[in-house]
Amino acid sequence: MKIILAYSGGLDTSLAIRWLQEKGYEVVTFTAELGQKEDLEQIKEQVKRLDAKPYVLDLREEFIKDYVFPSIKANALYEGAYPLGTALSRPLIAKHLVKIAEKENATVVAHGCTGKGNDRVRFDVTIKALNENLKIVFPAVEQGLSREEGIKFAKEHGIEIEETLYSIDQNLWGRSIECGVLEDPEKEPPADAFKWTTQPENAPDKPKYLEIEFENGIPTQLNGVEMGGVDLIETLNKVAGANGIGRIDHMEDRIIGLKTREVYEAPAAVVLLKAHEDLEKYVCTINENLFRGFVEQKWAYLAYSGLWLDPLREDLESFIDKINEKVTGTVRMKLYKGLSMVVGRKSKNAIYDQNLATYGKESTFDEKTSEGFTELWGLQSRIANKIRNRKLEKIRNRNND
Ligand code: ARG
Question: Do 124 and 112 contact (CB within 8 A), yes or no?
Answer without folding.
Answer: no
